[in-house]
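Possible regression after last week's pipeline update?

I re-ran a chain I had predicted before the update to compare outputs. Posting the input and the new output here so someone can diff against the archived version. Not blocking, just want to make sure nothing changed silently.
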Amino acid sequence: MDGLGYQRSLMETKMRCFKLLGERVMTQDFDRQVAELQIRVALLNRFTCLGTPMTVAIA
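New output (post-update):
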């Protein structure tokens, strides 16, 4: 797969994970909607960080 296809695959995976956190925005107020989506993004980023293996170089 070329670089562009790989990036698209990663993006599709991230969007699927984002939608698993909830497909609908619960609040009606725009500012609260923005805050709600920012919280979802922060959660997704944290989960990604926790799932990324740490590699250590051994000499």
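Follow-up from reviewer: compared with the archived run. The mean pLDDT is 82. Marking as no regression found.
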